[in-house]
Amino acid sequence: MFPVCTAIFIFIELRVAKEPIVPAALFINSSIPALLVVASCVGGAFFSAVYYISLFFQVVNGNTATNAGVKTIPLVFGVVLLSIGSGFTISRTGRYKIFFYIGPAFMIAGAILISYLDANSLLVQQIFYLLIFGIGGGAMIQTRILAIQATVPIQLIAIATAVSQTFMTLGGALGISVLGTIFNNVIENNMSNYATLSTAVATLEKAGVPVQPSNVLALIAMINSVPSLSNVAAQATADVVALFTGAFHIAYLSLLVFPVTVLIMTLFIKEVSMRQKN
């Protein structure tokens, strides 16, 4: 439905609407489509990363949802740090394109490092890896707004900002959906490799308990709440954690498509000096 709705929206905006919400003049500059793709990729990478790292802390480390949120503070700190730092730098130099190279580089490094986290990872590793990824995100989240504002005519700044924000939100929804599909498929395909877990799931299904292996938190809770599984609960839970860790690794490596796409799109962005714009 999304492609159909998008096509209808474009047709109405270009052919029907007398005062379109997104005027065609917005896309006269060839940098605009590239910046909108960048916004989508930033949203896809950032929102997906936050979602799955929180789930990692709950499943692998056994943290509550609140504690898992607290442990993501280094990632958020990296975002805030570079958002402020990039703002100061851009205000002084008037140049922003460099951050579309710095951001993806840090994001790629952070995603790769985070993908190798497991139950034995030290707290300092978790903090450092999340900080690196956050720095990558922070270098682009604010910069892509400044870039699109510098690129469009003054009368279109508000519209361009709103469109960029919309694309970032859509990118986040798309990223979580795609990575969720990859994550769920890995869980489903690899569960048979864990004999104790497979036996536990079969026992639950025979007892009439609906089991969805991709919902790992609920699966762990069910395994540890059924008396007939008390003898194998510890091993089955360990299998779930191992299964999740493998799927988490693949899901986070799949995030790399977003920063790589940003690097490619940056080649099509024509930098406009912010000082010249002013």
From TrEMBL:
Cellular compartments per GO CC: endomembrane system; plasma membrane
Annotated PROSITE patterns: MFS
Stretches assigned to the Major facilitator superfamily (MFS) profile domain: 1-277
SUPFAM superfamilies: MFS general substrate transporter
Keyword entries, A-Z: Membrane, Transmembrane, Transmembrane helix, Transport
One GO molecular-function entry: transmembrane transporter activity
Annotated TM spans: 34-53, 73-91, 98-117, 123-142, 154-183, 250-269
Location of this chain's protein in the cell: Endomembrane system
Membrane topology field: Multi-pass membrane protein
PANTHER family reported for this sequence: MAJOR FACILITATOR SUPERFAMILY, VACUOLAR BASIC AMINO ACID TRANSPORTER 4
Protein name: Major facilitator superfamily (MFS) profile domain-containing protein
Organism: Chytriomyces confervae
